[in-house]
Amino acid sequence: MTGAESLIRTLLASDIGVCFANPGTTEMQFVVALDKVEGMRCILGMAETVVTGCADGYARMAEKPAMTLLHCGPGFANGMANLHNARRANTPMVNIVGDQATYHRPFDAPLTADTEGLARAVSHWIRTSGSVKLIATDGADAVQAARTPPGQIATLIVPADIAWGEGGVPAAPLATSPRPQVEPEVLRTVSQVLRSAEPAMLFLNGQALSEAGLFASHRISHATGAKLLGPTHVPRMAQGRGRVPVNRVPYVVDTALQVLAGLKHLILVGAKPPVGFFAYPGKPSLIAPKDCVIHVLAHPEQDAVAALQWLADEVNAPRLVPIKEEGPKPCIVKGPFDSKAFGMTLSALLPENAIVCDNMVTSGRAIFPAMFNAAPHDWIQNTGGAIGHAFPCATGAAVACPDRKVVCLQADGAGMFTLQALWTQAREKLDVVNVIFANRVYKILYGELLAMGLEPGRASDTLFDLGRPDLDWVALARGMGVEGVCVETLEGFADLFRSACGRRGPFLIEFQI
Ligand SMILES: Cc1ncc(C[n+]2csc(CCOP(=O)(O)OP(=O)(O)O)c2C)c(N)n1
C-alpha cells in the first residue's frame, strides 16, 4: 500500500468524509488513492481560496473537519485568506499539501517553496511527513489536532516520494479531547460579579452563541439584568423566532463605544475582548469603557454552555424565561434597496432552518436585528475580515447540510475574490440562493477614508470604483452554470427569492443597489 493510500484510509476511519481539492502533480498518488478507496466525496474548487472557504463552511455546519488537498507552497498560499478566516472562527480543518519529493527539493524546481513557512502562518498544527510507515499516524495526529477544542487548522505536508512509497500502514483514529470545564472558583467569582448589581454584560462567542448557550445567557440576563452582546462577526449563531435575540458589536468604533458605555463589568464567554477592526487616529483600540473590569468566564476552548447553565441556576434564574420579541416585524417592503428594509423582507421569506452566510459588508449593516423574527436559522459570517468568504462558505455549508436551504449574501467587490465557487455549486447541484449586492463600488473604503480624517480624491475614486466596465453578475453566473436574474427593487427581490426557494439547486439574484 502506498503512503497516500494509508493516509486516505486513516482519514476516512477518522470520520473525514469530504475532500475539497485543487490537486497537481505532487498529489497524483492521493488522486489515485481516492479512486481506489471508497467513501470520500471529492469536490473540485477552481481556486484554492474557494477550496479552503468551502472547507470552512462545511466544518462550521457539520461540526467536524473536511480535508483539503492543495498543491505545494503556492497552492497553499492561494488558499490562505480563507484559511485565515477559518482560523479566526476556530474552524477545525485538515489540510493535506503535496510537495516536492525529498530528493528533488535540493534541485530547486519551479514549485519549490517554503511550504512549512507558509503553513505556519495560518496553522495551529503543522508537520511534514518524513516516512511512508508513519504518514498515516501523521494523518491521525492531524485530525486529532484539528478536533482539539475549540477547533484548529492542522496542515500536513507530504513530499511526493512519501506519498508514492510502498509500505504504508493505516493508523487507528485517535480520541478527541472534550472541552475542559470552567473551574468552580471562576464560576463563583463571576456569579458574585453578577450579583453586585453593577452594570454588567455577557460578551458571547463560539459555543455560547448556540441555541443552548444563548438560552442560558438569557436566563442569567433575566435574573441579574446583565446585558448580552456578540462580536461584530460571528462564526455561527442560532437566530430567528424562538431564539434569544442578541445583537453584535457595531463595526463603526464610535457606535460600538456607545453600546458598551457605562458598563462596569464585561464577562467574556468564549470570546476575546471586543476591539476595533482597525486603529483610527484618536480612537481607542479596546471597545470597553476604561473603568470596566474584564472577567473571563470561559475561554474559547472551554465548555461555555455548561458554565452558563451552572451560572443561570446559581443566580436562581427560572428554568423557562419567555423570550420577548425584539426587532422589526417581518414584511415585504417595496422600493429601492435599504439594508433594514431588505432584512425585513428576507425575514418574511426565509425558509425554516435555513443557513445564511453573510459577507454583505456595508449592505448588511442594519440587517441583523431585522432577522430576529425570521424563521429559525443559522447565521454565519466572515470572522477574519479577509473578503470573499460567503460564496465558498455557503458552498461548503450546502455540502454539509443537503436538506437545508443555504442563502449566500455577498457584496459584489468581495464576491469577485471567489466567484468560482458558483461553478462548484453548479457542478455539485447545491441548494444555494446567492444574492449579490451590486453597488459597483468598494463603498466601505470611502467610509474608512473619512474615518481616518482624509478626503477622497482621484486615486480613491479610481481604486474604490468597480464600474467602467460594470460587472454583469447574471452573465458571470451563467458562464459557470448557475441561472441568475437581476432585480432593482425589494418587491422584485421578494418575488424572485420566493420562487428560488421553491426549487432546488443554485440560483443567483443580482440586486442592483
Ligand atoms: C483579502 C482582502 N483584500 C482586501 C481587503 C480590503 N477591503 C475591505 S472591504 C473592501 C471592499 C469591499 O467592497 P464590497 O465587497 O463591494 O462591499 P461594499 O463596501 O460596497 O459594501 C476591500 C477591498 C480585505 N479586507 N481583504
Question: Can you describe what's shown?
Answer:
By secondary structure, the chain is of the alpha/beta class. It has helices spanning 3-13, 28-36, 48-62, 72-78, 80-88, 115-120, 135-146, 160-164, 184-195, 211-224, 253-260, 304-314, 339-349, 390-400, 412-415, 421-427, 443-451, 458-464, 473-479, 490-501, and strands spanning 18-21, 41-44, 67-71, 93-99, 125-128, 153-159, 200-204, 227-229, 237-239, 265-269, 293-298, 354-359, 377-381, 406-411, 432-438, 483-487, 507-512. The strands form 3 sheets. It has a 7-stranded mixed beta sheet with strand order 9-13-12-14-15-17-16, with helices on both faces. Strands 2-1-3-4-6-5 form a 6-stranded parallel beta sheet, sandwiched between helices. Helix 7 (135-146) links the parallel strand 5 (125-128) and strand 6. The longest helix is centred in the first third of the chain and has 15 residues, at 48-62. The radius of gyration is 24 Å and the shape is globular. Bound molecules: thiamine diphosphate.
